[in-house]
Amino acid sequence: MVAGKRLLITGVLTKGSIAYAVAERAQQEGAEIVLTGFGRTRRMTERAAARLPDPPDVLELDVNNPEDFDALARELKSRWGAVDGALHAIAFAPGDALGGKFMSAPPESAEVAFRTSAYSFKGLAETLVPLMEDGGSLVAMDFDATVAWPVYDWMGVAKAALESVARYLARDLGASGVRVNLVSAGPVETPAAGGIPGFDGLAGLWGTQAPLGWDTGDPGPVADAVLFLLSDWARAISGEILHVDGGFHAMGAPLSR
């Protein structure tokens, strides 16, 4: 599906990360990939990278450091000359902006959540689009922001901003042949999910309401959807939010079984 494509994949922390499943599937489908990591967690990314079928390099990228974007662009241009696609799987909110603390969260924490989880998608696009000479695909990981979720709080607001950022990127980058889409995934047991107080209760909703069922321990369906959007099979799709959640998003009241 992505044979011969050069893909940048962010957000790999452990083998349990959705981004790891994307990286693994991308290699199985013939893509050449590099990962990103930064700071103290970069070592975790490097350990995860070593477990992939063909261990890729890990490049430094702190999305809140403009210098890292500049260095990333130089490295990719030197390494590949061009880039075909990228996965943005980066999100963070301080602990005082999650877990039922919506009303008490300070503005600084809300700003960090927005900048890291939403504005950074624009920063990544701005860095990579000049390297997408023949067009390309940008995909970001989302969690349905059309409703207010328990415990998700300012991360939910940041995801709503991400959805808007993606639409504006799709508008502005279409003339360059660059597609911009989101995958709104059901809850998956990842390192990031482990940092959300009350995640298990939130994930439990899928057990009763997803008509296809949902396995929180299997990121495979999400990874396959990301690969589809990165591939030429999705060449006429942009500005889309693809829900991969067992059908949960389309239901009203909880289903009885």
Question: Could you write a compact summary of the structure shown?
Answer:
The chain has helices at about 20-30, 40-50, 65-80, 105-130, 155-175, 190-195, 200-210, 220-230; strands at about 5-10, 30-35, 60, 85-90, 135-140, 180-185, 240-245. The chain has about 260 residues and is α/β, with parallel strands linked by helices. A 7-stranded parallel beta sheet has the order 3-2-1-4-5-6-7, with helices on both faces.
Task: Characterise the protein shown here.
The chain has 257 residues and is of the alpha/beta class. It has eight helices and seven strands; from the N terminus they run βαβαβαβαβαβαααβ. It has one domain (6-245): 3-Layer(aba) Sandwich (Rossmann fold). 40% of the residues lie in helices and 14% in strands. A seven-stranded parallel β-sheet has the order 3-2-1-4-5-6-7, with helices on both faces. Strand 2, helix 2 and strand 3 form a beta-alpha-beta unit. The longest helix has 22 residues, at 107-128. The relative contact order is 0.15.
